[in-house]
Design brief:
The chain is of the alpha+beta class and 739 residues long. Among the domains are: 182 residues, no CATH class; 208 residues, Rossmann fold, CATH 3.40.50. It has 15 helices and 18 strands. The strands form six sheets. It has a six-stranded mixed beta sheet with strand order 12-11-13-14-18-15. Strands 1-2-3 form a three-stranded antiparallel beta sheet. It has a three-stranded antiparallel beta sheet with strand order 8-9-10.
Length: 739
């Protein structure tokens, strides 16, 4: 179907979100009242039916869309049929250019040869034209029943609003794309070198505010239930961030339909959750600062161990061993009054070694019951959410998943995930801007984001979304996105923010400059630096450019950055996936991986990469000599954006032979990368001092409250894309720092 033939909402319809709307105007309630969009084809374009077919007038090639020379296909060109003009036209899915004539590589677009009307020039912004985030061309809506004129009558038709993400002529700089396209914290002017085999839309249900609100309510209820079980059964608090790490670990093996809650795992008992609860039994230990605190902790551990062994069904031998060691510890405490912190800690470690196995055996069945109960409750919640989601879809006459034919086996530049099920009409969202924040409210549930990040989301949406050219569903999808990540982070203050921690901007610039990295393997629309990335969720993130979860993404060439969430199971699955990809392709493929330097004991992922036959080089950045961006960067003040890492960071270069020849990690390049890790505090990079006046004005406004103080780093945490975390115990989970 010709995208120019899409029917828009009538002039009398409720007002929808306009990307170029002035901030000075009073904000109304924005309504999304567009007809249900049609599904996508495997190439990401709209089709008139669930089965993507061409017009009867289309040439009878077996695959008309790809009936082009190989060099044009590699450049992103596809061939389609215009029902209005009854002739073929050409569309470039990488640059959003459209042509009537056969495209010629290297030639600039000409407006008269523009079927979709998207190659028109952007007007110069007037001084009084204060837009939310971009220039626009205002057009008068067509009257009801009025058809657009044919291109053959000498009229080019009304100009449409310029897509912000479309590629300009080669001589233009990314900064000319308008405010927000290039920021001190992202750069969408960098094109990808990641190649994949073309893929069809995935069978994932589209997001809906009512469903996201239900998912948030049930997930928070599950968190509280987990806390109650730990408190009632083992008399301990749920380990900090344990629930978040459980979600990460379960999703490695989960085959269920819910994007957040696990519902189809091979084993009910999670090794991650079991390990963390056992580690806090009989009490949670910490690193004391003063001798008196160390003495109290040793006494509390001995007393709790004695009480636990007396109240559980254990063998007489286990009871005898634990009670003897407890009495020996009490005797030592009575005789030693002036011991140091190290002496108390050494005695505690000895007591844990002697009593730990017996206490674990005593608590095993109870802890396994906690893990199984949480998983089974999650399965029930996931089914409840799924049923409600299908009820909403049926109300909009969406009764099943459309069928798509398998695309031709062709290597193409990577593109965002496309959903097979069309999105229904989404409800309206209250939307307002106050100071540096933008607020979204739905049914008394509010989400907020920095206005600069809201502009970022608008750019990503414009570049990647294919089913909403008029932005009718934009606000609803932004609310769903923010609500999903807010649910993932948790309900406590500062909980889960480490899941979104990111590498410093100079590091991304060095990766792109020296190793041509253009893709992030673990990111989100909120913290990505490049416009191409993988993320945890392929439903809410897909409209903003996500290529889906990294374990479901199979590139055949390209240069990638990977800084995974610091969960042992996920990091190990990542290594398996990368080695499998490197083994299957002869094209240049490179992964630069950042993980924490945990060696007491070493994590399986660390050992695997040190012994990998694809490891070309390895480097380490010492603790406290580098920093990360906060996981709450989309909501935190600018002077809290960076914090120091309290652990070392290991850098691994995993490359096949062709990737090593193309992006060899020479010592000079590696030194430049390590130098980029030098702490810069909360100042924007120097390269943005020369930004054009429009973009520079936005940056100055966003940075007006940015201080010079470098954050010393709170308790470290794990990262969903690029994060940081720490460990100070043998199990790597005993400290307050999540992993």
């Amino acid at each position: 179907m010709d995208p120019s033939d899409r029917s828009g909402a009538p002039a009398s319809a409720s007002r929808a979100y306009q990307p170029g709307q002035s901030q000075s105007q009073e904000r109304p309630l924005y309504s999304q009242t567009t007809p249900s969009p049609q599904p996508f084809s495997p190439q990401g374009h709209m089709t008139p039916s669930p089965q993507p077919v061409m017009s009867p007038s289309t040439p009878t090639s077996p695959d008309p869309v790809h009936d082009l020379p190989e060099e044009l296909l590699q450049a992103g060109w596809r061939k389609f049929w215009s029902k209005r003009e009854r002739r073929p036209y050409y569309f470039n899915k990488n640059t959003n250019e459209s042509l009537w004539d056969t495209p010629q590589l290297g030639s600039p677009p000409f407006p008269r040869n523009d079927p979709l009307g998207i190659n028109v020039s952007t007007p110069v912004r007037e001084q009084h034209d204060v837009r939310l985030s971009r220039n626009s061309v205002e057009t008068k809506p067509a009257a009801l029943g009025q058809k657009r004129k044919s291109m053959d009558d000498g009229s080019m038709g009304p100009p449409t609003k310029k897509l912000h993400g479309q590629q300009q002529q080669q001589h233009q700089q990314p900064q000319t794309q308008g405010p927000g396209f290039v920021s001190p914290y992202w750069n969408f002017g960098i094109q990808t070198n990641a190649m994949i085999f073309e893929r069809k839309p995935i069978d994932v249900l589209p997001p809906h505010p009512d469903i996201e609100l239900e998912r948030a309510t049930l997930t928070n209820r599950l968190r509280l239930h987990y806390q109650d079980l730990c408190q009632n059964r083992e008399n301990i608090d749920a380990p900090k961030e344990s629930f978040n790490r459980w979600l990460l670990e379960r999703k490695v093996i989960d085959k269920g339909n819910d994007p957040l809650l696990p519902s189809n795992c091979v084993q009910e008992v999670s090794p991650s959750m079991y390990r963390e609860i056992i580690n806090d039994i009989p009490i949670k230990v910490f690193r004391p600062k003063y001798p008196n605190d160390a003495r109290k902790q040793l006494y509390r551990y001995a007393e709790a161990a004695n009480k636990m062994i007396e109240s559980r069904r254990v063998s007489s031998e286990s009871r005898k061993v634990v009670k003897w060691n407890v009495q020996d510890t009490f005797s030592w405490l009575r005789s030693q009054q002036g011991s140091t912190v190290e002496e108390y800690q050494e005695r505690l470690a000895h007591l844990k070694v002697q009593c730990g196995p017996h206490l674990t055996e005593a608590a095993k069945s109870s802890v396994e019951g906690i893990c199984a109960k949480i998983y089974n409750q999650s399965c029930a919640y996931a089914k409840r959410i799924r049923d409600k989601q299908w009820d909403i879809l049926r109300e909009h006459n969406i009764t099943g998943v459309p069928h798509y034919r398998d695309p031709a086996v062709r290597k193409v530049p990577c593109y965002a995930v496309q959903l097979a099920v069309p999105s229904p009409r989404l409800p309206q969202i209250d939307f307002s801007t106050e100071n540096q924040y933008t607020y979204f409210k739905y049914k008394n549930e509010a989400c907020r984001v920095n206005t600069s990040h809201f502009q970022k989301l608008e750019h990503l949406y414009r570049m990647h979304c294919r089913d909403d050219p008029r932005f009718e569903n934009f606000l609803s999808r932004v609310w769903c996105l923010l609500r999903r990540y807010q649910t993932l982070f948790g309900i406590r203050a500062n909980e889960g923010s480490g899941l979104q921690g990111a590498l410093p901007i100079p590091v991304f610039e060095a990766l792109n400059k020296h190793f041509e990295v253009t893709f992030e393997c673990f990111a989100s629309p909120l913290n990505c630096f490049f416009k191409q990335y993988c993320s945890a969720y392929n439903d809410v993130d897909s409209y903003f450019g996500s290529r889906g979860p990294i374990l479901d993404f199979h590139p055949v060439s390209g240069s990638f950055e990977a800084n995974p969430p610091f969960g042992e199971e996920l990091m190990e699955a990542m290594v398996d996936h990368f080695e499998d990809l490197l083994h299957k392709t002869d094209d240049p493929l490179s992964f630069i991986v950042f993980i924490p330097e945990w060696r007491d004991p070493p994590t399986p992922a660390l050992v695997r990469m040190e012994e990998s036959r694809y490891k070309r080089k390895q480097a380490v950045i010492p603790a406290f000599e580098h920093e990360y961006r906060s996981g709450s960067q989309h909501t935190c003040p600018n002077d809290e954006l960076y914090y120091r890492a309290v652990h070392g960071t290991l850098v691994f270069f995993l490359q096949n032979k062709a990737g090593y020849e193309k992006w060899e990690p020479t010592q000079e390049k590696v030194d430049a990368l390590l130098q980029a890790f030098r702490p810069i505090g909360n100042k924007p990079p120097d390269r943005y001092k020369m930004m054009n006046s429009v973009t520079a004005g936005v940056v100055r406004n966003n940075n007006s409250q940015r201080g010079d103080k470098a954050s010393e780093g709170s308790s470290s945490s794990s990262s969903a894309s690029s994060g940081t975390s720490s460990s100070s115990s043998s199990s790597n989970n005993s400290s307050d720092t999540p992993r």
